[in-house]
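Sequence in, structure out. Go.
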Amino acid sequence: MHEALLHALQDQRSTLLARWERLLRAHPSPNALGNPDVLVLMMDWTLEEWASTLRRPNARRRRSIGIGASAARSEPCPCGMNPLLGYFRSAEAAMNEALTALAPPSGCDASSFAEWALARDAFATEALRALRQEAEREISTFCAVCRQRNRFAPSEACPATTAGSVGASPLAAPLFS
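Output:
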């Protein structure tokens, strides 16, 4: 059923990408590197990486061991200026909407609908976990070369996050909870 749900979601790819782009443009990044015109070019690649992770259960298990292992992981970008923060927040919101909108197969009676709904919920959990893993990997890679990385002490607020540019967005919820 997992593969059937993945195919059903991939059938909605154009709708997912359009919604993702609308969300990305509605909540622009606090810096020029987060230009939506550039970030939209990464969307197909990101979805391919996500699907690849979903198809490799061993990779999912191996990668998920580190999630939440340290307090630093709950704050993926200390300065809040990483352009991928909004990119992946909007991706998660669009993915969540697409997963919720998945329809049961035709001819689904009440008993098979309950089974399908459970399978869809389990798939949604795995799909969002895989997307968060991809987000964590990409955000931490970008942060590794950031010039702001060591500029702010953990207790000190970064001007980017106190200026309202990050916290003002409804998509500004933590990526890794």
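Check: The chain is about 60% helix and 0% strand. Helices lie at 2-11, 13-26, 36-39, 43-55, 57-64, 84-101, 110-144, 159-162.
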